[in-house]
Amino acid sequence: EVQLVESGGGLVQAGGSLRLSCAASGFTFDDYRIGWFRRAPGKELEGVSCISSRGGSTYYVDSVKGRFTISRDNAKNTVYLQMNSLKPEDTAVYYCAATNYRVTTINPLRYNYWGQGTQVTVSS
């Protein structure tokens, strides 16, 4: 059974940090690119960051560049999203997802597997 399980969300003050984890099982993890997405209240799903299967290529949406860092540990089947200098507008449910698409992409339609999400709330 394929599973992606996010953890690490919570409530933090503006300027604080959180590290999200995405633990994967049930598929060949290092064949898949992993993305982080978020859905804020009343807004559409947004691609935040993604990482290639070996970690050599990453992408960030402009609004998080310089503040968020994506990484992966293929030995642990886990991807991380380090989020620093958090802002109230980062408040959302964060999802990780996996794709075997041939290039690194942040298009959610290209992603095969999805986690259930973890809530991140940033207070002002």
Structural class: mainly beta
Largest sheet: 7 strands, mixed
* pLDDT averaged over residues: 97
Name the poorly predicted regions: none
Could you spell the SSE succession in H and E letters? EEEEEEEEEEE
Proportion of strand residues: over 45%
Query: What is the CA-CA span between the terminal residues?
Result: 40 Å
Quick overview:
The chain is an all-beta fold and 124 residues long. The chain is 0% helix and 49% strand.
How would you explain this protein's 3D organization?
Strands 2, 4, 5, 6, 9, 10 and 11 form a seven-stranded mixed β-sheet that branches. A four-stranded antiparallel β-sheet has the order 1-3-8-7, with no helix packed on it. It has no helices and eleven strands. It is mainly beta. The model has no long low-confidence stretch (mean pLDDT 97).
